[in-house]
Amino acid sequence: MGSVPRLYNFAANVLENNLRGGRAGKPAYIDVRGATTYGQLAERVARFGAALRGLGVRREERVLMAMLDTVDWPTAFLGCLKAGIIAVPVNTLLTEDDYRYMLADSRARCLVVSEALFPKFEKIIAESPDLEHVIVAGDNPHGYRLFDDLIGAVEAEDVTAPTTADDIAFWLYTSGSTGAPKGAVHVHGSLKLTADLYGTPVAGVTESDVVHSVAKLFFAYGLGNGMTFPLTAGATVVLNADRPTPDGVAALLRRHPITMFFAVPTFYAGFLASANAPTKSEVQIRRCVSAGEALPEGIARAWAERYGVEISDGLGTTEMLHIFLTNRPGATKYGTTGKAVPGYELRLVGEDGNEVPQGEMGELQVRGPTSAIMYWNNREKSRSTFMGEWTRSGDKYIQDDDGYYICCGRGDDMLKVSGIYVSPFEVESALASHPEVLEAAVVGWFDEQRLIKPKAFVVLKMPDKATEELIGSLQEHVKQKLAPYKYPRWIEFRIELPKTATGKIQRFKLRAEGMM
Ligand code: 3SK
């Protein structure tokens, strides 16, 4: 099982291993600008770390990364880690308000932003008192420094910080049903351990693989798929900076000999439905993984029939960094999330805090060496999530007679939409800010593929204003206020919402209507 030396720097270690393994000339990444070899990656990472140090960014200070998936992403992330600086990669689909919060909460001294995302930061840079340096990845510096110029201007000196395995390496923000996003704080050793426990032995990433992850690098899922596992194995990664559409990914699969494919159920479903999807003979995929939300059996079977490859459905959390529960090729039980990844222990806990008997539903809790050490600056949520050796997942599961775990949804009101958490409260308050809306309740609803999407039940101030046109304008209103993926796919007008005697909305009653 995995172990990490006491003195350990993930970035320095993984890059040195590849150079020592004779892979200096082998492509590590292929992006829209071409291939970057392991040798070039090691040099870029060293230069970026040295450049940050040269700017005066010190060990343990934070660098917020709002970056699209190009080779600049791993360069910046690994450059921070090598220099002992903390990388804070963030979701690129968020709003200005979200980023304002994250800059303030992390007190980032440096921002690295892709040119295409710069407009969302333009105004808030000046409002972030701790931010001293802005680096723009792309061609237009917008009055700041260009990423390429910065790394071109320094020597690739060795800035490796003598970190320990338990030193903080990076944070990943995750949203809860209420309150602001929480920064899950991860250490250097956890990256190695996710590869040693899951990436290499279970997902099976090898040196000969060409890997593509539809999930972007800023997700915990994408970070493992597109960086930790392939770099640990010495594989090659194909990156896609664009929004992942079935057509775009089909083109990548035709252009590159991709052997390992990581995606989320919504993507698998959309790809299967696409007229342009490649045939089995056009692709070289040998392994497929799904996570983010439970994979419906119909999608898994249709994929296996079309491509002759089972999709291994797994569950991870941002808090545990990667997958700890999964199906495996040859032992897949469709409709379940499989069994624990060796190195992790699972238990199902009831409302009373005791483990439930086999066959009964409980909250899934996990014990393993890759859990985050805390949520930054949030003692209350840290204490209730990281309970000593056990970490709460917030997901409800039952274990069947064969020991396979079956997902029964969330234990709170959160929705997972295409693998990303959406808080119903946030969508409700966006709806309630529309002048025609009195109140709203948002719940998860199955679409025709049995994948969860947000549905809103809306009470209007004047019920006779309910029209199809208003539905469209409410959806647009939410898209303007929040990250667009959070908008309600369906809106139903109601005269009133089900409530308790104390006026609390009974979302479970609305949810139950969708199950009928
Ligand atoms: O959503 C998941 O299942 C997942 C998988 C791997 C890493 C992180 C997450 C949230």
Explained architecture:
The longest helix has 18 residues, at 38-55. Helix 1 runs antiparallel to helix 2 (38-55), helix 6 packs across helix 7 (220-233) and helix 9 crosses helix 10 (297-307). It contains 14 helices and 27 strands. The strands form six sheets. Strands 2-1-11-10-12-13-14-15-16 form a nine-stranded mixed β-sheet. It has 516 residues and is α/β, with parallel strands linked by helices. A hairpin with a 2-residue loop joins strand 20 (386-387) and strand 21. The structure holds 2-methylbenzoic acid.
Write a brief caption for the model.
The chain is of the alpha/beta class. Helix 7 (220-233) links the parallel strand 10 and strand 11.
Write out the distinct hetero groups bound to the structure.
Answer: 2-methylbenzoic acid
- How many beta-strand segments? 27
Radius of gyration: 23 Å
- In round numbers, the mean pLDDT is 95
- Overall structural class, as computed from helix and strand content, comes to alpha/beta
Please outline the major beta sheet: 9 strands, mixed
Q: Indicate the overall shape.
A: globular
Question: Uncertain segments of ≥5 residues (pLDDT<50)?
Answer: none
Task: Figure out the total of helices.
Answer: 14
Compute the separation of the termini in Å: 45 Å
* Share in helix: 25-40%
